[in-house]
Write a structure and sequence with these properties.
By secondary structure, this protein is of the alpha/beta class.
Length: about 240
């Protein structure tokens, strides 16, 4: 039976964190553990997180702001997953639909799948994202438009083959933008597109929050710069188990 290690990362997310955590607690699929990593919040987000702490929900609060990529990596390390666990990435200002984990678990339980990606609903646009399409399995993931979006999941065993430098820029600093691409592009390469699955069913609610890096001109510029740099990195070889 698939066990999920859900990594929730965020910074000043007090307004949305309760809804995020409640969406997990309400999951119809119950075999999951959560690691919440808050990046030096200044709005009291940690107080909200601690209210939900129990044997399945663990909370870590950074003393210094480190950015998304570092938090994704550190969150996985803190979770200390077993090799057959499935890592699921959930932003602290987003939510899962009630059957999200059950839907993904069915994919993994069939076997031979090492990673999944899918679609998300945008309440501000009242529709699902237009990027929700499967990758062409005959082409390099770096030669195709970005598709590896929410809900992003993968077998924990892949992490041991992922150099953390792939989550850092050319100056050796953790990516502060496009971190999801920095993580998932090499993960999909390690898994092999033949062992990945696009989940068509919309199971993730994505929220465009005020103050996000993509909301300003400088942030968008940094995102594009990082994306180009990430896509230009040396592809990782498919792992054989």
């Amino acid at each position: 039976m698939t066990r999920f290690q859900v990594i929730i990362r965020g910074r000043n997310c007090k307004k949305y964190l309760s809804a995020c955590l409640k969406s997990l607690i309400k999951q119809s699929y119950e075999n999951w553990i959560v690691t919440v990593i808050l990046d030096a919040p200044t709005d009291g987000s940690e107080k909200t997180a601690y209210k939900y702490t129990d044997k399945r929900i663990r909370v870590h609060v950074n003393k210094k702001h480190t950015g998304v990529a570092a938090n994704l990596w550190n969150g996985i390390m803190l979770a200390a997953p077993e090799v057959e666990d499935v890592i699921a990435i959930l932003d602290a200002d987003d939510e899962l639909y009630e059957n999200a984990l059950k839907t993904v678990a069915k994919v993994y339980d069939k076997g031979k799948v090492l990673a999944t990606y899918g679609s998300y609903y945008r309440p501000d646009l009242k529709r699902r994202t237009k990027i929700s399409k499967p990758y062409d399995k005959k082409k390099s993931v770096r030669k195709q438009p970005w598709r590896g979006s929410h809900l992003k999941t993968f077998k924990a065993r892949l992490i041991q083959y992922l150099p953390k430098e792939y989550l850092k820029d050319s100056k050796g600093k953790w990516y502060m933008a496009s971190s999801d691409i920095a993580l998932m592009i090499p993960i999909l390469e390690l898994a092999g597109l033949d062992r990945t699955k696009h989940v068509h069913k919309c199971i993730y609610k994505w929220r465009m929050t005020p103050g996000a890096i993509y909301k300003n001109k400088a942030g968008k510029k940094l995102q594009l710069k990082n994306k180009r740099e990430i896509m230009a990195k040396k592809p990782l070889k498919r792992v054989e188990f």
